Fold these 2 entries.
Entry 1:
Amino acid sequence: MTTHPGLSQPAADSGGNLARAGDLFQLLRDGKARTRADLALTTGLARSTVASRIDALLLSGLVGPAGEANSSGGRPPSRFAFNPAARAVLAVDVGATHVIVAVTDLSGRVLAEQRLAQDVAAGPEVVLDRVVEEGLAVSAKAGRTAGELAGIGIGLPGPVEHATGRPVKPPIMPGWDGFDVVTYVQRSLPVPVLVDNDVNIMALGERAAHWPEHSNFLFIKVATGIGAGIIGNGELQRGANGTAGDLGHVRVPRGDNVLCRCGNTGCLEALASGPAIAAELSRLGVPASKGSDVRRLVNEGNPLAVQALRQAGRDLGDVLATVVNLLNPSVIVLGGSLGQVGEHLMAGVREVVYRRSLPLATSHLRIALSIAGDQAAILGASQMVTQHVLSPAAIEATLQAAG
């Protein structure tokens, strides 16, 4: 398992009951109430062993009483269930021009949130100081204290080395390259801090909330930039250096003479991102300067805006057709700011993907718009934290430390 700053590591398995209580806890994370007898039957463990592990989990607060089961004679047996209210998670979505700070419980349910206008180019200290300040305010609004935080999840709009939480040469984040986000935040909030690229956490959030049965899943963010969150066999795929899914700089056939900010020509981002579509509309005599202008024009039914968004979908489809052949996902979800007016974008994607991809790869493929919308990143940031702090190893470490 990759060691992440701020996460305590479990002690070696001593063979005692607590060293394996984390595995028993995983059975309870579905929220279903069970008795000690139910757990003994499911696990094959002795009732005395189950009882000692349940006692430890009850003391931690992560498991709580859930009424009594029907009695077949004598005293009704007690039932137990996961208690997601035991701790809270601070979930943060940092965008190019916004910050969303939310507090969730351990099941990912949003308890309170705050949305702010904030330019990421202001630098890491300015942005993260505001994250901490608003995080404490939102926690108070949710009735939770800083001491109840299990961890903090942060999504950033650029490449991130997940193992360290440091941004890596992010193109729209001046001053952030190599910045130690984890240590900086932990100076104010000394809890586990996990950081990842925003589209990765959007993929986690969208899938967990709305597509949990799909193990091979792509989330495509179309906004100021274009990127993909890739989930394969149920696991987020970050690649060797955390840059997996950077679709924005894949070459598109019709873009030979279009210069991208990366210095190359023909990049998908230079043709199909929000600013690129706005620039094309301006060239056609329709005033637009950013993605929000494109959304407004599409919502107003402007035919040139609708046509431009559909063409952006075709350009995206050119890239995704290859991705579908390589990765064979069962679901592709389109999100990001342009996903909010995504029917025309989706139509263009479908037009090309179903024509250009292999028939077997598309026989059961679904292409859909994001259901989570602008909450996908918040849900994913929370999910990223709970995957770590509620893992069997982390639960065992917590119980051993408490013991």
Entry 2:
Amino acid sequence: MNKSYLSFSLALLLTMGVISAHAKDLATIQSPASGVLCDRYLCANDKGISRELTEKYLGKKAAANEVFTSSDVDLTEFTFANGTFCDVKERLCREDRYYGANGQRTGAVAKKYTKLLFGE
């Protein structure tokens, strides 16, 4: 097999691994304080998405997000960048936000994030 082809293939595989790892880092949820979860776009507590917490932990630019200025947005139901969905009324986070044919949420309970956000 051609040596330059193998070198190119190896470089491509390494690059894709770095890109995948970087994308995963950007979607990570952090808990900078007890009862607070943040991704790279917003922060929330047990009352919902919070402009104040977003500004405190992510900065003024993040707090200028249009989610805070739109009256159409329910700040008590939200999906983080990694796909984790949290509902303040249910006091529960799930692995996704989707519904099944029966009208019930299909995502498995995200126990780690539910505990971090709601203490349950």
